[in-house]
Structure formats: structure tokens, C-alpha cells
Design goal:
The chain is an alpha+beta fold and 134 residues long. It folds into 2 domains: 34 residues, no CATH class; 97 residues, 2-Layer Sandwich (Methyltransferase, Cobalt-precorrin-4 Transmethylase, Domain 2). Helices cover 19% and strands 22% of the residues. The protein contains 3 helices and 7 strands; from the N terminus they run H-E-E-E-H-E-H-E-E-E. The protein is globular, with a radius of gyration of 15 Å. The termini are close together. 17% of the residues are buried. About 4% of the residues have low confidence.
Length: 134
């Protein structure tokens, strides 16, 4: 399994024209760009690499969203999973996806922690908990 880096890039006060030069450089260097929700309600990344055959889904942290998304093909990125972390871990166990999940807490912030196993993740993590489910 190859490892990558997840960058979070914001648009400042809500205007994409106000991206920083660093944000633009970061976006240009990434093979996959995760976009917010599409008009039809699906949250899917833009796949910029021909070798990637499955999509990357961005899923809100609510357990209903996780249960609905777990059967989708490809990788799921569960954003802001903190409040529903215990429920999300339970759902992943029930659906057989627990072993294929990892979590990053406080990504890019002081005290960042990477959990390769959800067994090591406390049931109530940081607000900035991001889970990757393969």
C-alpha cells in the first residue's frame, strides 16, 4: 500500500479568487483533489491520475452518512468524525471495514497524531479527526 499526504486547503473568506500562492502551488502538485459536495449531493474527489480506478468519497462525520457510504466503491474520507467516533467505529466493524481504516487527528496542527489502527483511537477524538476507510 502506498502512503500519501493529505493537505487541507481553504478558500479564505469564501472567495476562491483569494487563494494564497502556497495554496495554488499545493493544489497544482496534488494528483487527487477532494472537492466539496456536487450539485446532486455526492461528495467525490476529482481523480487526476489515470492509474487510480476508484473514486475518493468525502463523507461527513455523522454515522448515518458513514453507514450509507460504506458500500460505495473506492476510498472514503470521513471528515470531522469526532462526535460520532464510537458509532463510526462500531459501524465499520459491523460492515467489515474496520481493519482498512486509519485516522489522523489534528492534521497539520501541533500535536498531530496518526492512528494506523482504529483500536488505538479514543472514542472521542479531536474536532479535526479525519478517518480514511479503504
Amino acid at each position: 500500500m502506498s502512503k500519501g499526504v493529505l493537505y487541507g486547503v481553504g478558500t479564505g473568506p469564501g472567495d476562491p479568487e483569494l487563494l494564497t500562492v502556497k495554496a495554488v502551488r499545493t493544489i497544482e502538485s496534488c494528483p487527487v483533489i477532494a472537492a466539496p459536495q456536487t450539485a446532486d449531493g455526492v461528495m467525490v474527489a476529482l481523480d487526476l491520475t489515470p492509474e487510480m480506478s476508484s473514486p475518493l468519497h468525502i463523507v461527513p462525520g455523522g454515522y448515518d452518512d458513514v453507514r450509507r457510504a460504506i458500500g460505495w466503491p473506492g476510498t472514503k474520507v470521513v471528515m470531522k468524525a469526532r462526535r460520532s467516533l464510537a458509532d463510526t467505529k462500531r459501524i465499520l466493524r459491523e460492515e467489515g471495514a474496520f481493519d482498512g481504516a486509519e485516522l489522523v487527528e489534528d492534521c497539520g496542527l501541533p500535536g498531530e497524531r496518526v492512528y494506523r489502527s482504529l483500536d488505538d483511537v479514543p472514542d472521542r477524538g479531536s474536532y479535526f479527526s479525519t478517518m480514511v476507510v479503504r
